[in-house]
Amino acid sequence: MQTRKSNMNIKKTPKKLVDSDHRCQHELKYLISESKACAIAQYIKPYIPLDKYSKLHRGWAYPIVSLYLDSNDFLLCRESLTGQKNRFKLRVRSYTDQPDYPRFFEIKRRINNIIMKSRARIAHKNIAPLLSGFSLPTQDYNVDEDALKQFQLYMKIINARPTILIRYMRQAYERDSGNKTRITFDRQLAYKVTHSPEVNFNGQAWQRSPLTVGKVILEIKIKGHYPAWLSRMVKYFDLRQQSISKYATSIKQSCLLGFCAPYLEEDTYG
């Protein structure tokens, strides 16, 4: 399957986006060429279909934008860059710029090799007050209040604030039957340093990340046993697992370009 190029403006969004299951999973990442990404997409077609959201968008890819939060000294970024076994990220995620569409407060935790995620569905208008520490002002959605309170607690512990916006286009394949397997291809990674509680995909001052210039981020997410066909795929395409953090990479690049203050310490750059 050949992926068509899409512009970065969001023109169409499904009316309802159902939360996925975000319990424990294994997550493997690879940085591959565009030609290999297209070949892998062809290879996996008999085993795993496009997910329902990719099918709805031109080019079979949908937009993702996330506002990442961190402490003033980039504690969460530094833990990612130095490979801390147990760490977490705080982000507010959206799939559209439409104000009547929900946003998602997410905690992504890593405990050794296991990834755990929790998320709370939030109305766009409530982002700013919730990030300021206020309680949920309205009940526009079926909010997971425990997940929201935990997000705010983590924020308070490290004194986190909005740090950077990260956006990209995702082409996703997913199979729910048996072992839940999800394969994603992320392209057109870009970032924008900000301290504003706004989560918008479009707008100005975006910087293109060098990470995906001519490259694609391949992620394999598995809940359960590793399928045999997936093992064959990894071997056939000679995939080499890498530690890839869109957030940490974007912070590192923005600091190198002088967009961050304070800077990351030099020994953190790796």
How many β-strands, per DSSP?
Answer: 9
Helices and strands, in order, run as: EHHEHEEEHHEEEEHH
Helix content: 10-25%
> Strand share of the residues?
25-35%
Sheet having the most strands: 8 strands, antiparallel, barrel
Termini separation comes to 36 Å
Question: Any descriptors?
Answer:
270 residues, eight-stranded antiparallel β-barrel, 23% helix, mRNA Triphosphatase Cet1, Chain A, single chain, 7 helices, disordered N terminus
Q: What would you note in describing this structure?
A:
This protein is α+β, with helices and mostly antiparallel strands and about 270 residues long. The chain has a single domain, classed as Alpha-Beta Barrel (mRNA Triphosphatase Cet1, Chain A). Helix content is about 25%, strand content about 30%. The protein has 7 helices and 9 strands; from the N terminus they run βααβαβββααββββαα. It has helices at about 35-45, 50-55, 75-80, 125-130, 145-160, 230-235, 245-255; strands at about 25-35, 60-70, 85-95, 105-110, 115-120, 160-175, 180-195, 205-210, 215-225. The protein has an 8-stranded antiparallel barrel with strand order 1-5-4-3-2-6-7-9, surrounded by 4 helices. The radius of gyration is 18 Å and the shape is globular. It starts with about 25 loop residues before the first strand and ends in a 14-residue tail after the last helix. Residues about 1-20 have low confidence and may be disordered.
